[in-house]
Amino acid sequence: MTRLSHLTLRNFLIAFHDLLATTAALFAAFYLRFEGGDDFFARLPLLFQILPYFLGLAVVVFFLFNLTTTKWRFISLPDALNIIRAATVLTVALLVLDYIFVAPNVRGAFFLGKVTIVLYWFLEISFLSALRMTYRYFRYTRVRRHAKTDDAAPTLLIGRAADAEVLLRGIESGAIKRIWPVGVLSPSLADRGQFIRNLPVLGGMDDFEGIIADFAKRDKPIARIVMTSSAFEPEAHPESILMRARKLGVIVSRMPSLESGEAPRLTAVAVEDLLLRPSEKIDYVRLEALIRGKAVIVTGGGGSIGSEICERVVTFGAARVLILENSEPALYAVTEALAGAAAVIEGRIADIRDRERIMRLMAEFKPDMVFHAAALKHVPILERDWSEGVKTNIFGSINVADAALAAGAEAMVMISTDKAIEPVSMLGLTKRFAEMYCQALNRDLAAASSGAKPPMRLISVRFGNVLASNGSVVPKFKAQIEAGGPVTVTHPDMIRYFMTIREACDLVITAATHALGAQHSDVSVYVLNMGQPVKIVDLAERMIRLSGLQPGYDIEIVFTGMRPGERLYEILFASEEPTHEIGVPGIMAAQPNEPPMQTLRKWIAALEQAIARDDRATIRTILKDAVPEFGSTAGLTMQPRGKIVVAWTALVDGLLRNADPAGQ
């Protein structure tokens, strides 16, 4: 009934066309079979009697096979198959009519005959397809004509045939405008010398300069290059392509992967494209089942992670979203970005350190889920002003957890960090303490429920650096390169894990779906798979090359020394922290130590008194008692466990040298 209610005048005109085509096919089959002779005219009266019933059946068949509701502008192979299926069903109907009903009961002989029925099948397919294909061809040539004349830039596509085909379809449909593809460069040998939608594959990556020069000689200079997702695979040497394109003055764009969920539009190439490992496959149906119709609160919703979580929960069908943020500009930006969303969006200025306000706002909103992303996270700043880190990251998290429980939330998810593992910084230490509070509260709620579903689940999700987040190294390097350098790196051996904001937030929500399963109530700390680590100096060199410049020649790289609270490389699990797989790609469970809530409350009370007196020595002593592994040397020097990292970075160096043989 829903499909019927959406039918338009266009659909009725299509149905009328298909009925005319079916009538013409049936009469033409009769005429050809009986050559327009006496047998043809003798059969006409019975044919006219049968025709209305047959056309009625045809209307139903065409609708069921989507012929009535398919836009002719986008007709393709699946639509052609639907035409064949519909014609086959109608042909079988004629066969049944002739052999079972008419022959034995009406005429005593066959009315249609096998030849007529076979002719009808071919004619029906032809008549239903003819006008559709003609219209499709008309639109195709019209778009290509406009694309070629409307200031379209001659463009070279780079990537495998499958990716190039998606881009070409986008151009043909008009979704991607102002580019005119002239050829494809593919890293796959199987694509060489082939045609993709009538576009030639001109060669491989090594043929880049030669092809550009050849088009220039023919007065058809290539003005633009579009790199598809397969062009960013290591074997395609994307950095080499980018450097060579920049030197030749050619504009470079990228086409997003279909798996990213992005619309098929061209965007600028970013450093993230060169760093990305294959993303974990996300079960979006699972995420939508968790979020749809829920009321969600996001603390720190104006930050990089918080704003992305807001966008994702809206995408997955949240009914109401409350954004808590203590920065007025950040709150305004995120609420404006979500304006027009299907969900009811509300933004409130609030500081998570203000316990009474947080309790009141949550009680009024009555959330189903709380995502706690608010935190102070800049390592060197917290080393200087670490009492502020205690107030926000510890007491603020306690306030959010208690308020979520009091408001009747189903779950609270705290965004943690890999720096909480054997912490050497105040950021890691305060986040680990907040984790322990959530663990203890989660354990007490589970114990009090006596095997039944606990009133609320509290989990923490750890992950490392997020590409292009506020305060991260990527925007800092971009600003330094734009200023002409130097690019500052703390240490030549500094290594970090990176992932995209989108993947991190999707995996955070995935962890929540796992935690809310009744059989998983014992897991309270999750760790995201960060893939391979990245050497920061390599990242700096890549970004310089991405700007069309040469490291050490156009832009200097200066090593400034490690900052307070930093270590050379982050670790994903503590040495005394059991871990296990949970059966969800991209996520593992950690089992850190769990001090009882009674002990935690003693430490919290002592911290409150020490904070009030600004007694740094006492604060440090309390936190050291709570987290004995604080101050571990893990990651400060290259331990044996770091040999794998060193080997991997050596491999990266080799790849970079292959990408730029001059070593620049």
Question: In words, what does this structure look like?
Answer:
The chain is of the alpha/beta class and 664 residues long. It has 3 domains: 141 residues, no CATH class; 120 residues, Rossmann fold; 372 residues, Rossmann fold (3-Layer(aba) Sandwich), CATH 3.40.50. The chain contains 22 helices and 22 strands. The strands form 5 sheets. Strands 10-9-8-11-12-13-18-22-21 form a 9-stranded mixed β-sheet, sandwiched between helices. Strand 21 and strand 22 form a beta hairpin. Helix 2 packs antiparallel against helix 3. The protein is globular, with a radius of gyration of 33 Å. The chain starts with a helix and ends in a 5-residue tail after the last helix.
How much of the polypeptide forms β-strand, as a percent range?
A: 5-15%
Shape: globular
Structural class: alpha/beta
CATH class of the largest domain: Alpha Beta
The gyration radius over C-alpha positions equals: 33 Å
Low-confidence stretches: 633-664
Give the second-level CATH assignment, the architecture of the largest domain.
3-Layer(aba) Sandwich
Strand order of the largest sheet: 10-9-8-11-12-13-18-22-21
Calculate the terminal CA-CA distance, rounded to whole Å.
Answer: 65 Å
What is the CATH homologous superfamily assignment of the largest domain? Answer: NAD(P)-binding Rossmann-like Domain
Tell me the helix content.
40-55%
Counting structural domains, the number is 3
Write down the oligomeric state.
Answer: single chain
Number of DSSP-assigned strands = 22
